[in-house]
Amino acid sequence: MDTTAALGPETARRRAERHCSWCGRRLTSSGRQGRPRLYCTQSCRQRAYERRGAVQRSGLPEDAVVLSAAEIADLQDRLFQLRCAAEDVGTAAEDGASTAELRKMAAEVVAVAAELERLR
Fold it and tell me: How far is residue 78's CA from residue 117's CA, in Å, rounded to a whole number?
């Protein structure tokens, strides 16, 4: 039986892993009640505040994502790494790689994908 589902949606949501809304780092659970934290540090909160102000002044939509050319190039590089890692797993599976080798390669795909989640 899934114990998370038995606890109810509110408790399950509280136990879900949360990340900083600015930098994406994992937020530790403070054990406090009330509104959950959105940012890991005061610095991240300040940067988000400054970004919201800049977005409002520029007339961009609130949900707009603005990336520099360097950030786009970095994102493209990490997407390429993910595709190559996934292709390697497929090739190894077709070549009859051992289960241990496929697990190791799958762990690499997960690591590359986790790095890709980080936008900043």
Answer: 10
Does this model's pTM top 0.70? no
Contact of 5 with 12, CB cutoff 8 Å: yes
Which positions ≥6 away from 119 have C-beta within 8 Å?
24, 67, 71, 75
Q: Using one digit for the tens of pLDDT, what is the confidence trace for 74-98?
A: 889 989 999 999 999 999 999 999 9
**How much helix, strand and coil, in percent to the nearest 5, is found in the chain?**
60, 0, 35
pLDDT at 1: 47
CA distances from 45 to 49, 57, 72, 112, 120 (A): 6, 19, 23, 27, 14
